[in-house]
Amino acid sequence: MNRPNIWSEGREILFEDNHLLVINKPAGLLVQGDATGDEPLSKKAAEYLRFKYKKPGEAFVGVCHRIDRPVSGIVVLAKTSKALSRLNEMFRDSLMTKTYWALTGKPPIPENGTLVHWLVKDTVRNVTKAYSEKHSQGLRSELHYELLGPAGNRYLLQVNPVTGRPHQIRTQLATGLGTPIIGDVKYGFIAPLPDVSIALHARQLQLQHPVTKEAMTFVAPLPDAPHWDAAREFYK
């Protein structure tokens, strides 16, 4: 059996125990399979576990949340059905703190605040539209943001979504602040990045372990991509 040449501990594998596998997902990789047929993170994780533990059959990997394909950063996978069930409840009820870093082409005005929109997803075009007033088909979406500072010729924002809607951060920053994320041509940025990612990174996740109840904090290093280089000085 060949070991999948994809992950190393401390870089892609942020944490693993009997119930959880926490991955720093590279941009460009699907979390869960879709119509493209491209191999997703969940399949790669199953291969990794099958090799590591010499399992004769498929390893259990449960997906309890997703981040968009062009986004990098923390994804929590469940290794047991018990963990999956409890994680699903926690993500559904927003019982964790999610922190993202985003690069924009101009600073937000004001430099920090809260955005509330009603988001409507167009599943055919795979694009989300944000409305500032209550919309009959929209889902109320809220996030907090703050400008951490200039990063080269870009601006680094820290974003804490309160809700977890499809494309929420991308569309709320673009619509609510007029600051689309670097590389995100779908939501108004002028040009794609060379690697076709967008400069949005799931940086930190704080939650209670679904089985042991221990308070846990995961932090994902930034991708090794030139557009993130100037942001590394903001590491604490």
TrEMBL record:
Annotated ranges, domain Pseudouridine synthase RsuA/RluA-like: 19-174
InterPro entries: PsdUridine_synth_cat_dom_sf, PsdUridine_synth_RluA-like_CS, PsdUridine_synth_RsuA/RluA, RluA_PseudoU_synthase
A GO biological-process term: RNA processing
Top-level taxon: Bacteria
Alphabetical UniProt keywords: Isomerase
Database matches in Pfam families: PseudoU_synth_2
Name recorded for this polypeptide: RNA pseudouridine synthase
Species this chain originates from: Hymenobacter glacialis
